[in-house]
Specification:
The complex is a heterodimer of chains A (336) and B (537). With 336 residues, chain A is an alpha+beta fold. Chain A folds into 2 domains: 223 residues, Multidrug efflux transporter AcrB transmembrane fold (Up-down Bundle); 94 residues, Alpha-Beta Plaits, CATH 3.30.70. Chain A is 60% helix and 9% strand. The longest helix of chain A has 33 residues. Chain A starts with 7 loop residues before the first helix and ends in a 16-residue tail after the last helix. With 537 residues, chain B is α+β, with helices and mostly antiparallel strands. Chain B is built from 13 helices and 19 strands. In chain B, the strands form 7 sheets. In chain B, strands 4-5-3-19 form a 4-stranded antiparallel sheet, covered by helices on one side. In chain B, strand 1 and strand 2 form a beta hairpin. The chains are: A alpha+beta (336), B alpha+beta (537). Chains A and B meet through helix 3, strand 2, strand 6, helix 5 and helix 7 of A and strand 4, strand 19, helix 8, helix 9 and helix 10 of B.
Chain lengths: 336, 537
């Protein structure tokens, strides 16, 4: 039987080290890069003389430095494109040599790749049709509101778990540990995408929000399954030491934890490899979150129970502050 | 024995599955299946559909075109509207567009077209994308909400209502074609005669001394329907702006005991019975007023239209086009097929790892998926990527429930129990964790749904609703479907092949297994643990 609980402090250290870069990145503004759904940008219609498909156009725009584009087909070889706000877009005069702008660069780049544009009447042209600055489609408030909803949901989860585990001593501890594990996963995903935003320019959109909600749902689900086993073993194994009971439970649920996560990861990897490009970031959120969710149930939530029961924190304080007679107040703990 | 019960349950499951499959049957197979799979077209279930064609009501059975998919998965119609500031040069266009986009959003949502997208375009335009409805309908829904007017009947000098009998009433400009105007005293006005009223724009003098039309821009967009405190009948409550109060006071003053009409883009607003909604003015109204005596549907409709029509500036549709999925049609199709392959891989994994129970769980997974998709198709929700994410999560939870049960069953087998006892114990022991984790998810869903509803975050709302449907069905799938399959299998010769149930047969029956059993307590008779779970009856 693998000794999970004995090395609990190492797991905290590991989580800390994994979370740290993300948290640092989140602290340094811009913590997350909002996508064009929130910020708005530029929209234009482009019509090509020769056959162009959506994916070809998307990858061409991506090569031109616009990986954030949303491309919608609106007719034969006609596309509605949304990008972040193009610099110097508004200054181009109708007639005469235009000053170099991002618009010109994109127009030139696309013509080089796909040939001539057409205008609304079907005549050959070298300009986009309908070029506008647009507002966002989703209010940035949605992020805040979703965050608020998640907080309320976390409190409800805490209360529910505390109630569901009322038969065991200190049920509130289980609720708290589950919510800490939930936060662990949320912070890990947020941190990872904060870093991705700074390094690869990945932006936060509503898909990311959806992914985050999914990860949180999975995290709590996974934690409860592990806790359920602890509850059952506590009820049956009288006289057993608490850490041992948790350790036995973790070993017993290991196969299930691994298999469940494995099937979900299988689905995600299959979709990453074969699915469309446009949902890749979304799948990445899920992949990171599901792995983290499984990890945090075993190596965070369950370990926190043991840490509390074994009074590790009080001991730590006694060791750090040997002169003091009384251990430090208890409120300082659980920060992990 | 409960043999008959399990067989009845099986029959029920089969019926449900067949119904679901027929419902889900894709009308466009090439969108959902790789091209090498032959899939008969046009075999799906037909839904009753009522339409209006040239004034006549038609009723036909139509195949639902597809699932209601959002802009991200399917696309829809895009309308570009331009603000016409020529008549109202004093308004701030930015604010007016902002207000107009909120009004459009509310109106669109009120008509059940969720997950629309609105953005301002340049300085004086709005772009609206609506999922899954045809352009004409979209135009009607959004474009026709241009201007709401209050109108009054044309009167003669005796304050009798002038109607157009035997001719054709014209509203723009008001008049009567092919007949003489006939004066009717207001008290003898019939519903038929009401149809012939010549409605003229209600005009009054504003605070600046200029005579102006009383239009929706003087109406606050906070109209609502409530019940009458004593009679319980619906009341439509509305409120005017300060300038609007001044205008309405003059209009209602001269319209006492006469009807007042509401026009949208020069057409009278009609009720459910197709009659013009024309309440009689009973009192002089200035800032706040109520309209009584409307059927509840009409009150609601009028309320939506009064709110929506309260555009601060007229909007004109300048462009209309069909757009495809924002995620890209190719990308969506690829992802759908990838998802199907992934599901097959999951089934393969379960079969390889759990053998016969894995096969049964795969069957249960098939039942589950078709039922959820069936509900998505029948349920009037618009499915977006958020919904798909929730669906994938719920599939994960459904698989997890099965894995939990099988792992427990295996544990019990290793302790030397009989197959039947192990399966029953596997179910009853796994049940508490399935129950608690799913209840916690359900609570989360309810909270997220409520929040999404309160704050208009349709993404959160859609996610919560689809996850809720998914979780409820996944519990049904794990507890009823998989269990029925397993119980029925026990009665067959398949149950004698223990190597089809567990991989490590030697371990399952060997004494070593008992010795290495992690928990001494686990070997106790089942009765001491939890009572076996009753099937969901």
């Amino acid at each position: 039987m693998f000794d999970f609980v004995g090395r609990r402090n190492w797991y905290y250290l590991l989580s800390f080290l994994v979370l740290l870069p993300g948290v640092i990145s989140l602290v340094i503004p811009p913590s997350l890069k909002p996508g064009i759904e929130f910020t708005g940008g530029t929209t234009f219609t482009v019509r090509f003389a020769q056959a162009v498909d959506q994916e070809g156009l998307r990858s061409a725009l991506s090569d031109l430095g616009h990986s954030e584009v949303v491309v919608q087909r609106t007719g034969e070889n006609r596309f509605l494109v949304r990008t972040r706000e193009l610099q110097g877009a508004g200054t181009a005069p109708e007639v005469g040599p235009a000053p170099p702008s991002e618009r010109d660069e994109i127009e030139a780049g696309l013509q080089q790749r796909f040939g001539d544009f057409l205008d609304n009447e079907g005549k050959v042209s070298n300009r986009f049709i309908d070029f506008y600055i647009v507002s966002g489609t989703v209010s940035e408030e949605i992020g805040r509101n979703a965050g608020f909803a998640v907080i309320v949901a976390s409190v409800a989860i805490l209360l529910y778990i505390s109630w569901a585990f009322r038969a065991v001593p200190k049920p509130f501890l289980y609720g708290t540990a589950a919510v800490v594990a939930l936060l662990h996963d949320a912070v890990l995903v947020l941190g990872a995408f904060s870093i991705f935003g700074k390094v690869f320019g990945i932006e936060i959109n509503t898909m990311f929000l959806t992914g985050l909600l999914t990860v949180m749902g999975f995290s709590v689900h996974d934690t409860i399954v592990v806790f359920d086993r602890i509850r059952e073993n506590l009820r049956r194994g009288e006289g057993r030491e608490f850490p041992e009971c948790v350790n036995v439970s973790l070993n017993q649920t290991l196969a299930r934890s691994v298999n469940t996560s494995f099937t979900v990861v299988l689905v995600l990897v299959a979709m990453l490899l074969m699915g469309g490009v446009t949902i890749r970031d979304f799948l990445l959120v899920l992949l990171i979150g599901i792995i983290s969710g499984t990890y945090s149930s075993i190596f965070m939530a369950s370990q926190l129970l043991v840490t509390w029961e074994e009074r590790d924190i009080q001991r730590l304080f006694r060791r750090l502050l040997p002169r003091r007679r009384r251990p430090a107040p208890v409120e300082v703990e659980v920060g992990g | 024995m409960r043999g008959w019960f399990n067989r009845a349950l099986l029959a029920f499951i089969i019926v449900l599955t067949v119904l679901s499959v027929v419902t889900v049957w894709p009308s466009e197979p090439d969108r959902y299946l790789p091209s090498f799979i032959p899939w008969p077209e046009g075999k799906g279930i037909k839904f009753p559909s009522i339409g209006i064609e040239g004034g006549a009501v038609t009723f036909q059975m139509k195949e639902a075109r597809a699932m209601r998919l959002g802009l991200d998965l399917r696309g829809g119609t895009r309308l570009v509207m331009e603000a016409d500031t020529s008549q109202t040069p004093d308004v701030n266009v930015d604010q007016a567009l902002e207000a107009a986009s909120r009004i459009i959003e509310r109106r669109v949502n009120a008509f059940g077209v969720a997950e629309s997208e609105i953005q301002t375009l340049g300085s004086d335009r709005l772009a609206v994308q609506l999922p899954g409805i045809d352009p004409e309908k979209a135009r009607e829904l959004v474009g026709r909400t241009a201007v709401l007017e209050f109108r009054e009947p044309k009167l003669d000098e005796n304050k009798d209502i002038l109607t157009c009998q035997g001719g054709k009433v014209i509203y723009n400009p008001p008049g009567c074609e092919g007949a003489q105007e006939v004066a009717v005293p207001p008290q003898s006005l019939t519903a038929q005669a009401e149809e012939n009223i010549i409605w003229v724009p209600a005009r009054a003098t504003g605070s600046d001394g200029v005579e102006k039309d009383l239009t929706g821009r003087f109406l606050k967009p906070n109209t609502f329907v409530s019940g009458h405190p004593t009679t319980g009948l619906p009341i439509l409550n509305f409120e005017m702006t300060s300038e609007g109060s001044r205008l309405l006071e003059q209009v209602t003053n001269r319209l006492l005991d006469l009807p007042m009409g509401f026009f949208l883009d020069g057409e009278p607003i009609r009720g459910k019975d197709n009659n013009i909604i024309a309440p009689t003015v009973r009192a002089v109204i200035s800032d706040k007023g109520i309209i009584e005596g409307l059927p509840v549907e009409d009150a609601r409709l009028l309320s939506i239209q009064l709110n929506a029509g309260a555009f601060p500036v007229p909007l004109r549709v300048v462009q209309q086009e069909e757009v495809d999925a924002t995620l890209g049609e190719d990308s969506v199709q690829k992802s759908v097929i990838a998802g199907e392959v992934a599901l097959l891989i999951v089934m393969l994994f379960m079969t390889l790892y759990y053998r016969l129970p894995g096969v049964l769980a795969s069957l249960a997974l098939f039942v589950y998926t078709s039922m959820v998709l069936g509900i998505f198709k029948v349920w009037p929700v618009t499915l977006t990527l958020a919904g798909i994410a929730a669906f994938v999560l719920s599939v994960g939870m459904a698989v997890d429930a099965n894995i939990l049960i099988f792992e427990r069953t295996k544990e019990e087998l290793r302790l030397g129990r009989s197959l039947v006892a192990s399966i029953e114990a596997g179910f009853s022991r796994a049940w508490s964790s399935i129950r608690d984790s799913n209840v916690s998810t359900i609570i989360t869903c309810l909270i997220l749904f409520w929040f999404g509803d309160q704050f208009g975050a349709s993404l959160v709302k859609g996610f919560a609703l689809t996850l809720l449907i998914g979780v409820l069905l996944s519990m049904f799938s794990a507890i009823v479907v998989t269990r029925t399959f397993l119980r029925l299998t026990i009665g067959t010769p398949l149950a004698r092949r223990l190597d089809w149930w567990v991989v490590d047969v030697a371990e399952a029956r060997g004494p070593a297994a008992v010795a290495s059993a992690p928990l001494p307590g686990a070997g106790r008779p089942l009765a001491e643990g939890m009572p076996p779970q009753q099937p969901e009856e």
